[in-house]
Amino acid sequence: GSHHVVRGIVYSLIAWFLITISDTIIKWIRSEYPASQILCARGAIFLLMVVFVVAVTGKNSNFRMRSPRAHLTRGILSLGSALLFVISLKYLPLADAMTITFATPLFVTAMAPYFLRETVRWRRWIAVLLGFIGVVLMMKPGTEAIRWYALLPLGAALCESLRDVLTRKMVFSESSLVMVAVSTAVIVLLSATSSISGWFAFTPTDIGLLIFSSILFGTAHVLFVEAFRAAQAVVIAPFRYSAVLWAGLVGFFLWGDIPNRWMLGGCLLVVGSGLYIFYRESKQTS
Hints:
Blueprint: H1 2-30, H2 35-57, H3 68-91, H4 94-101, H5 104-115, H6 122-139, H7 151-170, H8 176-194, H9 204-230, H10 233-236, H11 242-255, H12 261-283
């Protein structure tokens, strides 16, 4: 029904907001420590929370895993997307790298008919493309030629879209908490091996910030899975663009960054395409 779809969209909007705040906190802490250490710590804290939740609620019954291979694949795709993105930041400005990863909804829209049997009509394509153009305008990527480095964030976007499509396939048989826990565990294990060379002690303040970031991060990822449970992947994917709006708001309130004409123009396109998809979906229950 359409109310399910609306719930899925609302979940994904909240999730992107939480991810933005979580990433802002990580950026705040990041300068002191290696990226792999932060990824590892944030993931480990989240896993401890999952264990705690399962122990307290005694909800072991729905902590089942029907398809371990699918879970592992999903974890590897999550890790692949995170690693490719982090590596790309060595060569590309953040705005450029982020813009390229926003190709994810385009990939999901292209894959959905084949992997998920979801219908994608021309109107939806136009909405997704307009949203993407809006994002590109807001990010206004650098003019100097983006060379092979651009393939790194594009690879991250591809990993992420495959993960989203797989998530939509898995939600019907798997529990949300297990899906998030497994992909987080994969990231923790591999980032732990890469930060084996040396671990810097966290200050108490940073530990507090990390715990807060982990709560937001974990909640966001459970909400994502729930969003894919409630609505089709092609509906949920474009709401990824909302991350740009949240980032703009955070920038404005924390650092007083005033959006320029490009930002506002792009913002209108992003919001417009989102509202259009929202409107179409709430009208039709198909």
